[in-house]
Each structure stands twice: as structure tokens, then as C-alpha cells.
Amino acid sequence: MKGHSLTTTHFRDPITFEVFKNSVIGLADEMGLVILRTAHTPLISQAMDFSTAVCDPVGQVIAQGTSMMIHVGTFPDAMTAVLTKYGGRIEPGDVYLFNEMDGVAQHLNDLYVIKPCFLAEELLGFVVCTAHHADVGGRVLGSMDLAASEIFQEGLQIPLVKLYDKGRLSETVMDILLRNVRLPELVSGDLEGQVAALSIGEAGFARLVERYSIDGFRHLSNELLDYTERLTRSAIESVPDGTYGFEDWIDDDGVSVDHEPVPFRVKITVSGSSIVVDWDGTGPQVESSNNAHITNTRSVTYGVLMGVFRDEIQSNSGFYRPITIKAPEGSIVNAKRPAARGRRSRACYRMIDVLLGALHQAVPDRVPAGSDGGTGTLLFSGKEPARGSWMELIVSSSGWGGRPGLDGIDYVSSFGANMALRPVELIEQAGLLRIQQLSYEPDTGGPGQWRGCVSLRTEVRVLVDNVSLRVGGQRHKILAYGLAGGKRGGPTASMLNPGRPDERLLPGTTTVIMQKGDVIRYIHSSGGGFGDPYLRDPTLVLGDVLDEKVSVDGARRDYRVAIDIEHRRVDEDQTCQLRAPSCRDLGPITPRGLKTERVPPTSRIEPKSQGGLS
Amino acid sequence: MSRNGHRDIHVAVDVGGTFTDVLLFDGDGSIQKAKVLSSPPDFGRAVIDGLKIVLDAQGLHASAVNTLFHAMTVATNAVLERRGSPTALVTTKGFRDSLELARGRRPTMYDLMWDKPKPLVSRRCRFEIEQRITASGELDPPVTTASIDAVAEQLANAEVDAVAVSLINSFMRPDEELRLTDELRKRFPRLLFTASVDIAPEIGEYERTSTAVVNAYIMPTVDNYLRLLEIDLERLGIHAPFYVMQSSGGLSRSSDARRQPVHLMESGPAAGVIATRTLVRAAGISSAIAFDMGGTTAKASLVENGEAFEATEYEVGAGMNAKRGVNVGAGYTVLTPTLDIAEVGSGGGSVFWIDSGGAPRVGPQSAGALPGPACYGTGGEVPTLSDAALALGYLNPVSIAGSHALRPDLAMAALRKVADPLGLGVRDAAYGAYQIAIANMTRLLKAVTTERGRDPRDSVLVAFGGAGPAYAAALARELEIKQVIVPLAPGLFSALGLLVSDPQYDEVRVYVPQSIEAEAVSRSVGEMEDLMMSQLLTDGYAKGQIVVMRFADMRYSGQQGILRISIPPGPITDSVLNSLLDRLDLEHYRTYGHRKARTAARILNLRVRAICTRTGIEAMPALAAAERNRRPLAAGGKGSREVYFGPGAGLISTRVLGRGDLSTSPQEGPMVVEEMDSTTVIPPNATAHLDKFENVIIMVD
Lengths: 614, 701
Hints:
The complex is a heterodimer.
Chain A: H1 14-38, H2 42-45, E1 50-55, E2 61-64, H3 75-86, E3 95-98, E4 110-119, E5 122-132, E6 161-165, E7 168-169, H4 171-179, H5 184-212, H6 214-237, E8 242-250, E9 262-271, E10 274-278, H7 294-309, H8 317-320, E11 323-326, H9 345-362, E12 376-384, E13 388-396, H10 424-428, E14 433-441, E15 455-462, E16 467-472, E17 493-496, E18 504-506, E19 509-514, E20 519-523, H11 538-546, H12 552-559, E21 563-564, E22 569-570, H13 572-579, E23 602-603
Parallel strand pairs in A: 8-23, 10-11
Antiparallel strand pairs in A: 1-2, 1-5, 3-4, 3-6, 4-5, 6-7, 8-9, 9-10, 12-13, 12-16, 14-15, 15-20, 16-19, 17-18, 17-20, 21-22
Helix pairs in contact in A: 1-5, 1-6, 4-5, 5-6, 7-9
Chain B: E1 9-15, E2 19-26, E3 31-37, H1 43-58, E4 65-71, H2 74-80, E5 87-92, H3 98-101, E6 126-129, H4 145-156, E7 162-166, H5 174-187, E8 192-195, H6 196-199, H7 205-236, E9 242-245, E10 251-253, H8 254-259, H9 267-283, E11 287-293, E12 298-304, E13 307-308, E14 310-311, E15 315-316, E16 332-333, E17 338-339, E18 342-344, E19 350-354, E20 360-366, H10 385-391, H11 408-422, H12 426-448, E21 460-464, H13 468-478, E22 483-486, H14 493-499, E23 504-510, H15 518-538, E24 546-556, E25 563-567, H16 574-592, E26 601-612, H17 619-629, H18 631-634, E27 640-644, H19 646-649, E28 651-657, E29 667-668, E30 671-674, E31 679-682, E32 686-690, E33 696-700
Parallel strand pairs in B: 1-4, 4-9, 5-6, 5-7, 7-8, 11-21, 21-22, 28-30
Antiparallel strand pairs in B: 1-2, 2-3, 9-10, 11-12, 12-13, 12-18, 14-17, 15-16, 19-20, 22-33, 23-26, 24-25, 24-26, 27-28, 29-32, 30-31, 32-33
């Protein structure tokens, strides 16, 4: 630990600093809570697909509210865009809006709204937010068409414009926006919520400045950024110097199963208190909407580093300073126009896994094995005489890989998201679908001393005819990697009408037509294991067997543990024989913080299919 | 109220983690108070000890007690410490994992080592039964004897004490789930069963199942505790009706509480809110924030127009966080009527420390009762808020009325550990800790006001708990709140809340139709009302004392938040429903700051609440009268001491008074008002006086 000397030199007044820090972060959170409370779209309220921040007059982020990972660090670029276009003519009462700029963008659903804050004539800074809107036009409802090949198919592109000009709402902008979206009430409601949040932020900003004075506020903001930079650098210093590389793939381009896997390669160089993350070698952008804007790539990189630092580091411009991110232009992680980006999350999830795989080599005690690879989707749609066109989306996940000292969590939203599982009873209310099963699939978790999460099995029966089902899964071919000797997770597998004469396996990404009574079984990929499975504490294996997350056969095969199921105990003699000669006793019972062997700087995992549907 | 010529004797017992507070209220206008150390794990022992003290002091035999009121932490602790009983779950085929899947959300965004709370029923004890209730309420297939046989066989081998039964879509067909539960109960008469529709007949399989499971899990523990306590009370000679405070702020008879202990999760905190509600109703205050600060946490709740707010979502065991709605997934969801109480880890024992970036912080970790703040002299070495308060002169180092004497030397030594690295003097550092705590609690108060669209400046701050009155004026100044009320016996204020609460019964039903129809709403509400009324009359309540309230949980289509709108008394007609839409519109505007088109409004649940009002206890004036008799104890010049009020005001020789030294005419601060159970700090530029109930009113400039 390279602890800092705790002296007064850091702060002019440490107490005032701490109170200020709480206040300004509180302000950013307060704006977020307004958006959360007023949200009309479940993605905003349940998945918290929004973000808020307070910025200084030159566009540095002073505080970002609790937000989704995919938005971390997105605002400095947004502020640069505003200052570049409007610098020198920013007026009180202005509100800026955009969803697509060359320098900064998420996908078109994310509308950025920005408001300058003034005290008398003086520009104090900005309050800013972005939120995922239900629909922004384009080919499909929800605007996130996986098959889109160009951004022009994805909906309305809004360059940086004034939504309000000196307090006057631009009817022109609103008219164009609402004419181009399928759910104008939701969009206008959520946009209102964003503007309301900024108004609350603006008032709070003014109160803070009145309290600390303009100079005082500036001084404290700078202290906050320096403080965060110091925390970040100290966290980076705790990571051994070196270059750590890793690669992983997505199965295909998300549209055609024949598309070759797309590589994601990263090289993380830690030197002293700075980090360079280079995505060189990553595959080219694809002809589907699985592309990421460089903004996403930055956000994901920042978010993963935050997870690994495990400190209460604030997301502000001080945090970004020691981190440099490079990505080749035209790659899937730095896609150029007119690449489609609606489903950029698929690229984001893979970036997360690749970053973690690389960081494992540097800090093996802080990183999980490969995750389920991100969400999968079952999109049902059809037309009913009584209700017209309908659509039901079921989102699937499994969870994370095994972790040093902890199993992967059996069912949790992806690290890059934090989405709520929709209640079965709510989905069924529409009378179109019946969920027959939603449960763990045994023997799927990647074996390891710390087991990867098990797969989630979803079985849905359709209750009407002529239902179109679009299956959007991943990790069919390229499975979650294990770490430190752990094994891979299981694949995604979908099957139509299991157990019936007409049962058939479906490819990873496909559309099928279902008739009343037809059933889709979807098993979501699982997480990789961490550590040698033969070192897993046999009592943990027994627990998994009793809980039917691992079968008796699976225990013997994957863990070399013999279970005497009749007496609900580990057969110690047999287990010792199975595990010999590597173990003299039943293996260590290891709490958190086990030692792992160092993996060579670049560990290459060959893409290959493994296992199948049981 | 007098009955058969006897005096009316009511006793309230509030069991907390550290102290058990007992308040005896005599119909003749006198009261007795006792504060004894709680006695975990056998909490009942301190209850009996405390009761003996107040009965002796009042010269009464136990049989004179008419009613007993109780708030307790046994239910909550059983979950927090995972000391409930082995429990099984019976659910629909295909869904035994709903409980463990939960909603898949996590409370922290970036913590790779976060772990989901372990389900209270492990997978091996979650059994599936072959049956299905469809979304429209058909049985396809129904529960059959064969399916019951199959699940019973599994239960027989499960070695559990309690069983929760929760079927998919059972809110559509409660009869089917109840029938199954009854059948199983017949076969396993020694097990304690909970049917999900008995407790939370709401939509959402995880939430309903989780509620039933929490109930089942703690039922043996709570049942045992209350049963033994009832025996002890009998033995002592108390044969009075025995009520327990629920999370809703209403009382429940102990027999009901034993069956549905999940309603007791916020028993203690709810009592404090109800005490505040009583105070502000008596004083005619339209908006008040209840601010309860003790040894480890501070809690806040809003009381508006005489009513407390209810939370629309609640997790037990989620830990403390003022940022509700964001940090979902940390605990176990419970769908019971629960007062909306925000909480932060900020109390007298909160630790003052320096983080790795060199910034000073306060809490959320606490020195607890052991080792305790350094100034207690019980082995604590890290500085806490109490040490800071002592160093600033807010607390008296000399023992007051039997409380612990404090050690300024130990407080100073501990504070120096933080002051030195910050380059501050001990006093400035102590004042810093105080300010940081105020900043933390500012966010707490905002959580129940601005985050709900309410301006804290429109509220009065009611401060209680052991530490609350020392921080209230500074907190009020920070939020520009003009008036602070420190009630009588601030340290026992929650116990007072018990004395003035009423038995309360809640029912809920899912409203299924997509559109709002008078006939359907009226039928559903009417059925619930009739059911409750007949039950209450059977239970011995008189019709005249039963007040019925009806609510609709509403929202606009596509929105997530729920607003609870009250349905006016009388027949439910189209025009009544129209008025509901007006109220929804208004409440939506207040809460969210904008209006929506009313066409898209939906009703999700209908609720009926029956309050069985009790007559007689005008606790506020009675308490005041009782205290007035005790005036000599509380008054008397205590001289003055040096108190630090920040760099502006500096170190001021400050008068130290008893509550009895204040009068109805305001006196200028600074002052410190010392009492047995709390210390009130009145800073410079603030005044203090007494209202007609002997509450200290602080007016903040």
C-alpha cells in the first residue's frame, strides 16, 4: 500500500470539502431520482437506463449520479460538443438536446439533455442528463432493430439543437421529434422528466454557488477532481505494472449465424499510476446494430476499472485523467457512420468480459471468470383481431462467472446492466403467453473451485396462432471462459417444442413462426468457473447436489466428488480416490482471497463449440 | 376512560437493540417512565423488569393494567441475523426458483464481489406441485389429491418448522391456494403454514412469495417470543389485551401478530412516526418531518396533513440507505403496509475517519454499544460523533440523572487521531465531524421531502431519539426549516407513540380490469369492507369505533411508480372515480412536477383499512400535565459551560438549563437543555420556548 501522507496540503479546508462533496454528489443523485420517479418507460425506471451529472463551465464533470455503467464518463464529450457549437452564445434558459454526434453518442434511444446554469450573468456550469427513450422511430418498435445495417434505419437522428432557447420551448424541435416516434406520449413524458430534473439541478447548483461563492465553488470543484484523481492513481498503483492482453469473441454479427466470430482484443498497460487501454486488433464494425460508439467503449472501460478498483471512487473528470483509451476507427468498438448501433449492448458485454480477462492477470483476487455474455431476448409479436399488433419481450440472463472466493451469482443482471426480471404474472396478464418454467438448469455452471452461475431455463407456450418469435441469443459457439484453471460455462440453446415429434433445435439468432400451443425452451448461457474444480470444497459440491444445481454424476465428472445421495453426504473415501494423487485430504476449504497462479500475459481461448442441449 | 370505576392504566413497552423503554400512563394524569438495558436474546426479561419498575413507582398491582402496547425488534433481528426457522416453500411446477431468482437487480453498480442475499428457503426445501392457475383464473390443472400426496411426501422429509405456500397467479384464485394450504395443514399439524394470499394477495410472484417466506421463516421465533411473553405477563398478573405495533403504524392484537409476524418489521421505527403524527395533529401542524437519531442510525419520515406516508416498496435486511428506489436487491422484498422511513448510518456512535484520498468522513460504520464511543470509557478508541459532541460542549461530562459519566480526556485523545492528519485543532475537527454528520442527514431529510416533490422549508422538524435534539437546530438551519419541536421525553417518544396508536387492519386486492369501472371497484371494495367488518365485530369491537378508509393504488399507463389515492367514504360512483382521477392528477403533479393525460390512468390494487379507534388517551396534554407535576426535577439552574458553535460564533459561555427553566416566552440562544434521556442544543440566533404541551419549540433564524 503506497498510502498517502495525510496532511493538510490536499485541501484548503478539509471539512468544507467533505460537506461540499456530499452536496454536489447529492445534487447529481437528486436529478437522477427525479428522472427515476417520473419515468414512463420501464427501461428507465427498472433498468435505471439513465444518467445525470453536474459539470463546470469548461465541461469537466464534477459529479455524476449513480448510473448505469454504459453511461459512465459519457458527459465530458457531450460538453465538448456543446461548448464547440454554442460556446460564447450560451444563454440562461437554454436547453440543448441531441442523440447523435460524431464525437459523442450512445444509441439513438438515448437522448442527451443539457442545461447551462447561471448566477446573474455568469456561467457557473451545466447540469446534464441522458435517458433511454421507448422509441425514436426507425424500422421496429423500440428502435433497436438487430438487423439494421445503417443508422438511418434506426430512427430519428437529432444533432445538437436547442430544445429551449432562452426559456422558450422550440415547437419545431418537439414537432419533428414527436412526429417521428411511435410512442409520443411516453417520449414527451420522459423528456419532460429530464427537463424537470435539470431544473431541479439548476436550482440546486445556484444554491451551492451562493453558499460557497463562485470562486469558492470553483476551488472546491477542482479539489474534488484532484481528490478523485488521487484516489484513482492510488488504486492504479496497487495494480502491478505490466501489459495484460486478452481476447474473446461474439459468435457472429447478430444477424447471420454464418458470420464468422468477431474478435474483441484488448491490451491494458499499467505503468505507475496510469493506465492505457488499447483495443487494437478488435474486429471491424458489422452490418448489424451490434456496433459500439467510442463513447460506449470508454464508458465500459471506465466502469470495469471502477469495479476492479473496489473503492468509493467518484465518477468525475478526475477519475478519467489517469486513463487513456484507444480504439481503431471503424472497428466494432469505435464504429463510424453510418454503422447501426441499436444493440450495441452485445459489444459492450463482450468488452466487459475481455477487460476482466485481461485484468485477472494483474489482480487475480478481484476478477470473476467469464460471464453469461449478456442478455438474450425472446421477442414475440403478432396481430390479434381484438387488439391489433402486439409485442412481448422476454429478456434472459444467467449471471456472472465464479469469483476468487465466491461462486458466481445464480441469476443476476449482467455487470453492464442492472435490469429487473419482469414478473411472470405481469407478462401473462395479456393472455398471449404462458410461462411454463423459469428455473435453474442443473450441471450448466462452469466448474471451478468457485462455480460459475448456472443457466436460466425459460419455457414459454404461446396461446394464440401465428406468433413471430425472434430469438436473439449469444454464446452459442464461444462459451464463457474459465480462469485460474476453472472450466468454461455452458452454451445458449433454444429448442422449439421439446419432447414433441416436431421438436427442433434453433440456431443462435433466428426468427420462427409459432402456433397456439407451441413451446419455446430457451436455456441461457452460463458463467465460467474460477480455479481448479478438483479443489472445490466437497461440502460445497454436496450443497449444490442437494440443491440440484449439480447432479450426482456431474459432481463426480466435473469435481471428482463422490456423493452418497441416500445419506446426503460426501463419500470421503471414494472422493479421495477420485482426487488422488493430487489431494491427500479432501482439499482446502478456502475463503476469499485465495492465491492463484499467474496466467501468461495473453491467454488465447480458441473459439470452439462445446456441449449441446441436454 | 374509566371502566367499572377503575383507573385506566396503559403501558407501552418499546424494545430496541440497546434499551427497553417503558411508559406507564395512568388515567388520573400521571405517568411513569423507565429505561432499562435490553436483554438479548431473551428480550422478554427486560420487558418484565421495566414493567415492575413503573408499576412499583406508581404503586400499582400488575392486574391494574388495562392495556399493554408493544414495539419490538425480534422479527427484524430474526431476518437480519438469519436466526429464523428451517422453512419450506410449496409452489407451482416450474417456479421453485422464483424466490432465489428474485428480480436480478443489485444495489451497487460496480461491485464485482457483491453477493445476492441467500434465499431464506434453500432450493432443496422448495417443492413444486403439479397444478396451475392461469392468468384469467382458471385451474389448468387444479390441485388434486395425487399432487398433494406427492408434495406432502417431500415435505415429510424436509425437516422444517414452517412452510410457505405460494402458487403462480394465486391472487386470481386465493381459494385454490388456501385449499391446498388447509390440506397440507391437516397432514402436518405441527408445522406453521403461511399462504401467500393470506398476507399479500398482490400480483408479482417473487414479491408475494418472498413476503410469505419471510413470514413463515420468522413465525416460529416470533410466535415463541410472544407466547412466552404472554405467559410472563400472566405470571406477573397482567391479564390485559396485548397489542403489537405493525410496520403500518397501526396496532395488531398479539394473537394476529403471531400469525402474521411479517407485519412487524418496522415495529419500533413506526412507533416514533405515530408519536410525531399525534403531536402534529394536536398542535395543528400541516407538515412535519419526524427525525429520530439514536446510537447507530438516523431515520426520517414525513407526516403531512396528519397522515404518515407509506412506502410502495420495502425490503427487509437491505441495510441503511436514504437513496430509496435506486438501491434495490439488497434485502428481501416484503409487501406489507409499511410507513416510509428513510435511514442513514449516522448516530452518536458513528465513526469519524479519514478515507484513502485524505478526506474526513463520518459513518456509516458505528462503534455500537461495544466498544462504544471513546468517551464512554468502555474500550473504544476511534473517535465518534458522541466524542465530537462532548468536545464541543454539547454533552455534559458529568452524569445526569443516572446516565453514564463521560470522559472528555478519552474523547480528545481519540479525536486527535483524525485532527492531526487534517492539520486541525481538536475542536475544529470535532466541529467538522458535526458538520459532516449534518450534511449526511441533510440528504436523509431530502429523501422524504424533495425527492417526493415536497419542500422541506414547508415542514416543521420534530426531533427525538437520544441524539436527535442535539443536531436538530443545525439541521433545520441547513435546510432552511424555521421551526424545530423537541417533544417531552424525547428519548422515550417512540414509546409514547405506542400509547396513542389504534388497532388497524389492512386488506388488499388486485384490480384486474384494464379500465376503471365503478361497478367493479365498488364490488371489490365492498366485499373487503363486509369481510373486515364482520370479522371485527366478531372480535368484539363496537361498530361505532371502527373507521374505514379505502385507497386505490394508481398510476398512469406505462409508468412504474405507484401513487396511493384515497377513495372518499360513501358509494363508489362514476363521479367518485372521476374525483379519484383528479386526485391522481394533483398528487402526480405534486410528486413529479408535471401533469399527465388522465385517460391513461390505471388502478392496480384496491385497499381497505379499518382503524378501531380507542377513546380516552389524550396523551400529549396528559403527558404535559404529568411533567408539570415533576417540574422540580427538571428545572434548576445548572450554570453554564463553554460551547463551540463554529468559527463564526466561536466558543461561547452557554447557559445550561432544564426543560422546566424554559417558559412560553422565547429565550435567546445559545442554550443547552439537559434531560435524563437527551440533550437539546439551541445555537446562537435561535430562540427556545415551551408550547402548551411542554414541547421545546426552537425557532431558527
